[in-house]
Specification:
Layout (H helix, E strand, L loop, with lengths): L2 H11 L12 E6 L6 E9 L2 E10 L2 H14 L4 H5 L3 H8 L5 H17 L2
Antiparallel strand pairs: 1-2, 2-3
Bound molecules: FE2/S2 (inorganic) cluster.
């Protein structure tokens, strides 16, 4: 198993920032129509930056690991910085080859994050 695969499994088994934030500044929910999996995401902002972020994912290894990794990355980043994140960033963050359906799993967390930034 590659180091990237191990990291993904670790984030799946022990997701960082999992759970609901009480009284978030913003919350959102997205779902993947192909499989019905979903991610809820919560954030607290300080000035223009994410102070706290959390998520609840009901989904596959890739979607959950992607949400966990992205939530770690997002803390203390500004809305402007986070709005620039794209598919290439997520694929690079995961570090593994993904087929088209798996890319949709990986992008679900990014879709949730982008909705938090609106
Ligand atoms: Fe549903 Fe991956 S199979 S998000």
């Amino acid at each position: 198993m590659s180091i990237y695969q191990e990291r993904i499994l670790d984030h799946y088994k022990y997701p960082r920032n999992q759970g609901e934030i009480e009284k978030p500044d913003k919350k959102t929910a997205v779902h993947n129509p192909l499989c019905g999996d979903s991610i809820k995401m919560y954030a607290v902002f300080e000035k223009n930056k994410i102070k706290k972020i959390s998520f609840i994912a009901s989904g596959c290894v890739i979607s959950k690991a992607s949400a966990s990794l992205l939530s770690e990355y997002a803390v203390k980043k500004s809305k402007e910085q986070l709005r620039k994140l794209d598919k290439a960033f997520i694929i690079n963050m995961l570090g593994i080859e993904l087929g088209p359906n798996r890319v949709k799993c990986a992008l679900l967390a990014l879709e949730a994050l982008q909705k938090l930034l609106i």
